[in-house]
Amino acid sequence: MSAPDLPIVLYHYVFSPVARRIVWYLNLRNIPYSQCMQPNILPRPDVALLGIAYRRIPILSIGRDVYLDSRLIISKLEQLYPPSASHPSISASTGDQKAIERLLEFFMMDSGIFRAAGTSLPPTLPIMKNPAFLKDRAEFSGGALGSGGKPIIEKAARRPTNITEVRDAVALLESSVLADGREWVLGTPGPMLADIEAIWVIKWIATIPGALPEEFISAKLFPRVYAWMERFTKVVNAKEKEHAPEKVNGEQAAERIFGAAFAEAEGTVDEGEIIGKALGLKKGDGVTVFPIDTGVNHKETGRLLSLNSKEMVVEVQGKKGIVRVHAPRHGFTISKIAEKASL
């Protein structure tokens, strides 16, 4: 059975800007999926049914293969759903375009723009006054939201600095990739993956009331960026209505996943790969896999199936069977469990 014949389940919540990247990607490529909506704080018992401890959103399953981190999710969808009449490509086609696409991904995700946007949320938002939310995000970020229940964004010097970083990112897009008046980042007839990579942080923070003061960011200052966001919003909203996903609860999602085949072959462990060699890892070893920036306290524990320079795959025991959990090498690490320790 090929991947396009397997059920896709997306675990996410409405206001997750990272999850929107995946929703837009799936809809723009006409890839059908169902969604299992989650609370924006722990616990998430629906995810726990799969035996998964990972706490970040989104999580996407294709059959019984479960993928963590939006970058890996998009990479796997590219691989498992090659361009076709049913699922047209939205990826860059030339070397120059691929470079722009990849650099925009890094710029928004890894250079600090997303972090700056996230810590620019105004303390007047109702959610920022919710003790449960603040406690959850403090644990998630390792205390980055503050101590004693007080969010760090209330510190006077921090928020203007972060807003400035977001403003500078918008200014860069206005004066570079959109400067010649093109409608889309790569000069294509419609939005592409490069547009998703460039827009997701800015669109999210720009729609939150009070997050960005008008004197810093506005349609008057950056008309090309705001016109681009309006075009993008119209297209993706229309696509979302056209491809409205079925909503399933946790039990229904688990039934679909455990009742499906695997999307990929089991894979192998490259024992000569740098971390595999350093830790003496072999196929079948008990391991833990976890992100190294946020959510580090929530580790996947299972049997190592595959390891290479791009990803790590562990077999995890869920409520009704096993799933294979895929994590990227970038931003994640792995540790070996002592032989006598129980999985």
TrEMBL record:
Entries under Pfam families matching the protein: DUF7962, GST_N_3
Superkingdom to which the source organism belongs: Eukaryota
Sequence ranges assigned to domain GST N-terminal in this UniProt record: 10-83
Ranges of residues in domain DUF7962: 117-239
Protein name (record): GST N-terminal domain-containing protein
